[in-house]
Amino acid sequence: MSTPIKVLFICVANSARSQLAEALLRHSDARFEAFSAGTEPTHVDPRTIAELAHVGINAQGLRSKPFEEFRDEHFDYVITLCDKSARECLVIPKAGEVLAWDFEDPASSSHPDAFKHALHDIHERIKLFVLVKTKHLEAS
Fold first, then answer.
1. Structure pTM?
2. What angle do CA 32, 91, 134 make, to 5 degrees?
């Protein structure tokens, strides 16, 4: 197997969106190595863990981490998951490509299915990302 494609997901608190993305990508495709971090990390929201468990995805090892923990690592892709984190991560010296996605923070939503919707929306985007970024690998 070739070297995994390293992806870092960043949001503000690293409590929901980036944690969902990290777990979803790890679960989706073994060719990717997923990580997450926050510009102002707090803790992993228990509803994040519950929603992942609800769809059968292992959340073991997820923890809220500061962006600085990864500053000196190379990532093939750095993906910000909200406009605020995109603005705060303008310079990422060892990023191959920086992508800016924008998802509403389910932790700040009053909607009862906010985490379910966030998981679904992020999963759909990740499936498309994997399809596009691995298309050339499969053609080889």
1. 0.92
2. 20
